[in-house]
């Protein structure tokens, strides 16, 4: 493909049925009128209703009518993303500045994100920006207990939009926030009603450029010590100033992913590798993971490995022990 332009940012909007994804999408489109945005809507069921609900003349809407975005139909998403480029290159369509994907309320975000990891050519054209998870403040506490999809959407968020805030009192809002933080403490929360959040706060965050964006705040560790036997999804944070023996680490992590990949929804991190002057940045989803060399460590910088794993039924103490076994003395 001869596409020379800078990579096109892609953001994924996820969230349970009725949480306010389309409302947020419309708010973003209204806020970003200067941009040409391609919208991909993945609908549950085959009536093209969502398409009609998205307002805006500038945007092109591509609808995937195959129900949920699951592994089986991931090729549809990939094909759609290629079709967008073809429309520009071969049919004289004006280039797009951005792509927004609204997933079905019942979808898991993993396969969507995986599409970009599994298809290197696609990632030369598109740049995965951020996964935004919309939360229905009013229904969330019930939904999160009842639906595995909601827990996965929460686990996957780079940012939360806590929508319908006007429908709940401050006490309940605090409870929802506490619950979100217990599942996924690293993702910032934007509280709003009717999706009214500035697009600038959600877009161009490039949270998948982990090198730039991974910031594990002090206190993050404390959160991770809470175990959630009732919901079973938790985040584990591993960090150390000791250098990592990369051979040991690869062996451990490879085995881990083979055995526990199903339970590991998302992980990302930076490694301080023994004898290597650059950071190793890696991230993955379930069994799929990728690592690459990042920026060199500077002389005045503390070399440190940090990574976070969000998943189901993971044992923090075991992870910690096994990780420590990969460190040099
Ligand atoms: N009261 C209230 N209603 C809202 C708010 N945001 C959205 N809604 C309403 O909630 C309903 C669902 O909003 P949508 O934006 O369609 O939600 P969605 O997540 O796209 O829904 P699905 O496509 O079914 O998954 C609509 O009737 C919206 O008007 C809000 O902040 N407060």
From TrEMBL:
Known catalytic reactions? GTP + H2O = GDP + phosphate + H(+)
- Domain (CobW C-terminal): residue spans on this chain: 233-327
Q: Which UniProt keywords apply?
A: Chaperone, Hydrolase, Nucleotide-binding
Sorted alphabetically, the Gene Ontology cellular component annotations on this record are:
cytoplasm
What's a single GO MF annotation on this record?
Answer: nucleotide binding
What SMART domains does the record point to?
CobW_C
Into which family does the record put it?
Belongs to the SIMIBI class G3E GTPase family. ZNG1 subfamily.
Q: What is this protein called?
A: GTPase, G3E family
Species of origin reads Salipaludibacillus aurantiacus
Q: What is the lineage of its organism?
A: Bacteria, Bacillati, Bacillota, Bacilli, Bacillales
């Amino acid at each position: 493909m001869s596409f020379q332009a800078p990579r096109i940012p892609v953001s994924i909007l996820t969230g349970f049925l009725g949480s306010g994804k389309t409302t947020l999408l419309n708010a973003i489109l209204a806020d970003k009128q200067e941009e040409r945005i391609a919208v991909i809507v993945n609908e549950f069921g085959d009536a093209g209703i969502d398409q009609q609900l998205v307002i805006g003349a500038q945007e092109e809407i591509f609808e995937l009518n195959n129900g949920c975005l699951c592994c089986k139909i991931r090729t549809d998403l990939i094909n759609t993303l290629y079709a967008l480029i073809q429309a520009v290159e071969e049919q004289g369509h004006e280039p797009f500045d951005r792509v927004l994907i609204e997933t079905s309320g019942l979808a898991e975000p993993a396969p969507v994100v995986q599409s970009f990891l599994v298809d290197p050519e696609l990632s030369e054209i598109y740049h995965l920006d951020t996964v935004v998870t919309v939360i229905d403040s009013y229904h969330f506490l019930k939904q999160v207990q009842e639906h595995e999809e909601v827990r996965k959407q929460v686990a996957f968020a780079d940012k939360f939009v806590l929508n319908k805030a006007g429908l709940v009192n401050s006490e309940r809002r605090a409870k929802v926030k506490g619950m979100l933080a217990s599942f996924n403490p690293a993702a910032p929360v934007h509280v709003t009603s009717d999706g009214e959040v500035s697009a600038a706060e959600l877009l161009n965050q490039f949270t998948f450029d982990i090198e730039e964006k991974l910031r594990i705040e002090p206190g993050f560790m404390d959160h991770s010590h809470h175990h959630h036997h009732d919901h079973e999804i938790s985040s584990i944070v591993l960090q150390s100033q000791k250098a990592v023996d990369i051979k040991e680490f690869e062996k451990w992590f490879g085995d881990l992913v083979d055995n526990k990949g199903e339970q590991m929804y998302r992980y990302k991190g930076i490694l301080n590798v023994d004898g290597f002057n650059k950071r190793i940045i890696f991230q993955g989803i379930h069994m799929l993971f990728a690592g690459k060399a990042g920026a060199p460590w500077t002389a005045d910088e503390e070399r440190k490995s940090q990574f976070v794993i969000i998943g189901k039924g993971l044992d923090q103490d075991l992870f910690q022990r096994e990780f420590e076994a990969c460190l040099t003395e």
